[in-house]
Design goal:
The protein is mainly alpha-helical. The chain is built from eleven helices and two strands. It has one domain.
Length: 284
């Protein structure tokens, strides 16, 4: 029963008492206990996983990328080499190798995205958002000249790129816009030669495109772990996990999954293992 018949009458208190559970106490202030548990690399070892059988992972995509990134069992460099390390292009290898620290997606950009979307689509559950949608938003928000025209083209789970006016874009804006559109469709962002060209893609845009590619491949976990890393709560150091070849081995598509990498496929080439690291690339 949800209503009191004697509300606002002298007998209201008696009726309320009769409808209450015996011994029931109303909720007070109480104390909120927050979990301060932090994963350690040994906590997320693959041998403890339900999908790890016969000394190998039995699923194509690891669903625990967020926990492994936060624990430091793998780092962003590992994910990047897994995605791009098998591409036989010296220019791209050198450009990846030239980046000293891979600290995760830019949190200023992520804040721009989520603040705007929370104000417009407050009821949206972002945990189930398609990774291609998040990757495209990340790139569009990385440049003010792209972000402002894109706002009118956004819905809660769709981006109408045809509604984004390209007036006023510079030569540096087009590669980012093109990459956003490609990643939205879960395709590689651009040709390898173009991505490696410094005059076409600036260093900052290069980093954002790389991180957006990881978001399209692994989903929201990449962004969540990036926030933890930049707050100093995790220390990605690279470890024993050995992922399978990246999306560029098959240049036609990016796996449509919010999972991650296969850590123990020894036959597929490995990162974090110097014997299997691609020539000319750091081994994580």
């Amino acid at each position: 029963m949800t209503k009191y018949f004697a509300q606002d009458t002298p007998r209201a208190g008696l009726e309320r008492m009769m409808m209450s559970v015996p011994g029931f106490q109303r909720r007070g202030g109480g104390t909120m206990i927050l979990s301060r548990f932090r994963y350690k690399p040994e906590d997320v070892a693959c041998r403890y996983c339900l999908h790890y059988r016969r000394r190998s992972c039995q699923i194509p995509i690891c669903p625990y990328i967020a926990e492994r990134l936060k624990s430091g069992a793998i780092g962003y460099r590992d994910l990047i080499l897994e995605c791009f390390g098998h591409i036989p292009h010296a220019g791209l290898r050198k450009r990846i190798q030239a980046v000293e620290h891979w600290d995760g997606p830019d949190q200023v950009i992520l804040r721009t995205v989520f603040v705007q979307l929370k104000s417009r689509f407050a009821a949206r559950a972002w945990d189930g958002t398609p990774p291609g949608y998040l990757a495209a938003l990340y790139l569009l928000a990385s440049k003010e000249r792209l972000w402002q025209p894109a706002l009118s083209a956004l819905s809660h789970d769709f981006i109408d790129f045809n509604r984004i006016a390209l007036h006023g874009f510079t030569a540096q804006d087009y590669p980012v816009f093109y990459s956003a559109r490609r990643l939205y469709d879960l395709k590689p962002p651009m040709e390898v030669e173009d991505l490696a060209h410094r005059n076409l893609v600036s260093d900052m845009d290069f980093l954002n495109i790389i991180y957006a590619t990881l978001i399209a491949r692994h989903g929201k976990a990449v962004m969540d772990a990036g926030k933890e890393a930049q707050n100093g709560l995790c220390n990605p150091s690279g470890a024993e996990q050995r992922p399978a070849p990246g999306i560029w081995a098959d240049y036609d598509s990016i796996p449509h999954s919010q999972g991650g990498i296969r850590p123990h496929d020894r036959t597929a080439g490995a990162i974090g293992n110097r014997r299997h690291a691609p020539s000319g690339l750091p081994s994580g």
